[in-house]
């Protein structure tokens, strides 16, 4: 009898341990976080070599996938399955929901450039795009080149001409380079024409182009390498013009007040919000526009007008990197707790605590000591421990009690029967 009961006891313990192991092993899979959506439902999200297509951009022909025709992307056999702006006819290299996109723009050739056509940059007048002044540089391999708008010269750059050194292998482009010059462009440029007069040309092939300066500095060993290219990357800035259509779509999100996270003082809202930038205050546009954002501490595509996804700052080791932590009484490594829209750093040693919002702003304080448990609570814990000990003792020694229960008082027999009932229930 004793071996049989002990066997049942071991089986029960094995089942409990096995169940706990299943729970702990399956927990990570259930807590995995999906990437936030970037496009509307049932719309293409990528094209080409993993180029993301976030709304308000979208792949046609479904009109629900993009905001208007300027944001329509072609991605099919006719484009070589590369993303192209349908209206502007520019290949897209990268789109950012923060208002920029990188596209390919033609190099304009002059002089003895064998097999090259002289193409001008696309005219983007009336579009939601402008050439971004803080990211692009006007570059010319020539003695002098100019960029013109419809009526006026917008800018020009000139270089030191040296017909004896035209390979470009040992010279860098600059404000006054040798056979190559660069200059910044003004804001709000949506259309321009590049000109290099014949008298300002060096021997051989001359060309000028607008180019993403980061790409130019990090991907070329010589400016002469451009001669073998037809197009180079440029950065455009995009926005959504404020009109009846855009106001109707975004009106419920324009002007929403978003409060930061400081501990439990504020309820964190993952709903995106939008702002109107008036023509008088906009830095890059001569028209009012709508810009949408996720609240700090959240990420995603706010133009979908869906809840944004919380950023887990603890995975980014924000508590280890924050400067405020060093000024507080944290001993050892601070413990990080992620909350919706923010995070908390605290010390188990000194109880120093800092609550931060998603931007890193917040407050620090010393958390009070937790109250001691009440006397009644401590008594209940002790009684529960004694009861569990008695049950374990009965389970292990039940056979010995049964063998000696003859002639015992009724109370002892009652306890033995109660132990048998408990074991049977288990």
Plain-language structure description:
The structure is a single chain. This protein is of the alpha+beta class. The protein is built from seven helices and 25 strands. The strands form seven sheets. A seven-stranded mixed beta sheet has the order 3-4-5-6-7-16-9, with no helix packed on it. It has a four-stranded antiparallel beta sheet with strand order 8-15-10-13. Strand 23 and strand 24 form a beta hairpin. It is elongated. 30% of the residues are buried.
Helical content class: 10-25%
Question: Mean pLDDT, as a whole number?
Answer: 80
- Work out the helix count: 7
Estimate the global geometry from the Cα principal axes. elongated
Tell me the count of domains: 4
Per DSSP E runs of 2 or more residues, the count of β-strands stands at: 25
- Structural class, judged by helices and strands? alpha+beta
- Tell me the Rg in angstroms: 35 Å
Order of strands across the widest beta sheet? 3-4-5-6-7-16-9
> How widely separated are the two ends?
16 Å
Largest β-sheet summary: 7 strands, mixed
Helices, strands, pairings?
Elements: H1 2-30, E1 46-47, E2 51-52, E3 58-59, E4 72-74, E5 84-85, E6 90-96, E7 100-106, E8 108-111, E9 129-131, E10 136-141, E11 144-148, E12 153-158, E13 181-183, E14 193-195, E15 205-212, H2 213-219, E16 231-238, E17 240-241, H3 244-250, E18 273-277, E19 289-293, E20 298-299, E21 309-310, H4 318-321, H5 323-326, E22 335-339, E23 342-346, E24 352-357, E25 362-366, H6 375-403, H7 410-425
Helix pairs in contact: 1-6, 6-7
